[in-house]
Write a structure and sequence with these properties.
Rossmann fold, 6-stranded parallel beta sheet, 6 strands, 16% strand
Amino acid sequence: MKFLAISGSLRKSSLNTSLLRAAAALVPQGVSMEVRTLEGIPLLDPDTLEAGFPQAVNELAAALKAADALVLASPEFNYSVTAIMKIALDWLSIHPDAPLKGKATAMMSASPSGLGGARAQYQLRQMLIYPDAKVLGVPEVMVGSAFEKFDAQGELTDQATKDIIQKQMQALKELVNC
């Protein structure tokens, strides 16, 4: 079984990308997880669709279509997801291959704030309604005070966070199988 993980952060030392890398090491037996960023995804301009979908969008859609499940991680900006995450989901929601339709999807977030990106996750849930993704409800992974839970190399050091990630990855595997 294959999971695709997408980080909504373009920062080189992103906590959310580090969180996804930690999750990739905690997936259940028989599951692999590829971690990607959204580097190279262009702005969505409907006028450009006459020439077809951009290559970066087609590649992302194909990777998602080939995956059994999706894991999204986004920092919280202005009580929502990052602009690049919104743009990518907009592209994927109108892609002719409908890669989000019925896709088992989990989300997680890491933030220096105490809320751990909770508001961004609730925005993600709303965005995934239209493309008809199958969103996992619980367990939720919202890592607050995240700088205290990762070391200087971006490795997750907090055991309680690892435990909840492991539970979420198991629940996502079960969602795929139901």
